[in-house]
């Protein structure tokens, strides 16, 4: 199985999963760039996966369905569905993509939006060597999504769930925000050597126009301050910036998210 990014809008990635015949897309904000790749590679679109209701993740669904009326759409149960025939998914559901021989587990990860879901495939799937995670706008490399609808507590809990996945899990986020996220992370945790090193390798990637994704859970645990806010030195830095003592994990996380919003 092949997984490739399709660039959309300014900095979105639509992920295309395919074998030599069939394709699945995740969060198609636009249809045209997908149609181009499908035509170039002679692929049949079988399934459309949606992580949350924002337009830059769903805007291409109707146009794709016009060309591919048999494609199945899967979307979060707790949000407006992007098409009338979409299958509504809840936490704990499994999704079997038979053409790709791939099974996803659905994880509800509210925070960015209230019904946001992520798709996780364990590596007991024959077609993948590493576990896969498609996490929409919940976890970014070096960062996390803005809290448009949910509370800091919800986002903190969602990120804790993702952090508990195996280190080898390949993380497919939907925006190229890595460089600015890491610059923020460095302001929070300037003593983090893994972060410093990663800033350099990401800069090289971007100079060459190469995506910085997928990341991995192991890497994110080392370089993403939003997964590190419980560490004493990170917490101290956030407290110093907030200018107030923060006791609960969620308070610390909320202050970190506010810091990033103003950065
Ligand atoms: Zn979004």
From TrEMBL:
Q: Name one GO molecular function term.
A: hydroxyacylglutathione hydrolase activity
Q: Where is the Metallo-beta-lactamase domain?
A: 11-175
The UniProt keywords, alphabetically, are: Hydrolase, Metal-binding, Zinc
Could you tell me which SUPFAM superfamilies the record lists for this protein? Metallo-hydrolase/oxidoreductase (SSF56281)
| Cofactor annotation remark | Binds 2 Zn(2+) ions per subunit.
Q: Which residues bind Zn(2+) 1?
A: 52, 54, 112, 137
Q: What class of enzyme is it?
A: hydrolase
Which residue stretches, if any, does this entry annotate as coiled coil? none
Q: Per UniProt, where does Zn(2+) 2 bind?
A: 56-57, 137, 175
Q: Which cofactor names does the annotation list? A: Zn(2+)
The pathway that the record names for this protein is: Secondary metabolite metabolism; methylglyoxal degradation; (R)-lactate from methylglyoxal: step 2/2
Looking at the keywords, is Signal present? no
Name the chemical reaction catalysed here. Answer: an S-(2-hydroxyacyl)glutathione + H2O = a 2-hydroxy carboxylate + glutathione + H(+)
Enzyme Commission no: 3.1.2.6
Question: Could you describe the subunit structure of this protein?
Answer: Monomer.
Q: State the protein's purpose.
A: Thiolesterase that catalyzes the hydrolysis of S-D-lactoyl-glutathione to form glutathione and D-lactic acid.
Task: Quote the NCBIfam families the UniProt record gives.
Answer: GSH_gloB
Family membership noted in the UniProt record: Belongs to the metallo-beta-lactamase superfamily. Glyoxalase II family.
Q: What is this protein called?
A: Hydroxyacylglutathione hydrolase
Q: Which gene encodes it?
A: gloB
């Amino acid at each position: 199985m092949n997984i490739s990014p399709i660039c959309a809008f300014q900095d979105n990635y639509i992920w295309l999963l395919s074998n030599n015949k069939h394709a699945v897309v995740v969060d198609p904000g636009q249809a045209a760039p997908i149609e181009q790749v499908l035509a170039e590679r002679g692929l049949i679109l079988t399934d459309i996966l949606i992580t949350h209701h924002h337009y830059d993740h769903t805007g291409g669904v109707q146009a794709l369905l016009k060309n591919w009326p048999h494609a199945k759409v899967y979307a979060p149960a707790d949000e407006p569905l992007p098409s009338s025939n979409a299958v509504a998914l809840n936490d704990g559901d499994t999704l079997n993509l038979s053409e790709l021989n791939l099974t996803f587990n659905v994880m509800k990860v509210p925070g960015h939006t209230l019904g946001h879901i992520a798709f996780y495939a364990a590596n007991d799937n024959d077609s993948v060597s590493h576990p896969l995670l498609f996490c929409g706008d919940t976890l970014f490399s070096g960062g996390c999504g803005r809290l448009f609808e949910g509370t800091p507590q919800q986002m903190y809990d969602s990120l804790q769930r993702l952090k508990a996945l195996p280190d080898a899990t390949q993380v497919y986020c939907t925006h190229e925000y890595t460089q600015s996220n890491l610059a923020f992370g460095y302001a929070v945790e300037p003593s983090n050597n893994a972060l410093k090193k990663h800033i350099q390798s990401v800069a090289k990637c971007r100079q060459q126009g190469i995506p910085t994704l997928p990341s991995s859970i192991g890497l994110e645990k080392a370089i993403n301050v939003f997964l590190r806010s419980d560490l004493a030195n990170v917490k101290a830095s956030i407290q110093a910036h907030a200018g107030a003592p923060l006791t609960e994990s969620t308070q610390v996380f909320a202050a970190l998210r506010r810091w990033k919003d103003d950065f």
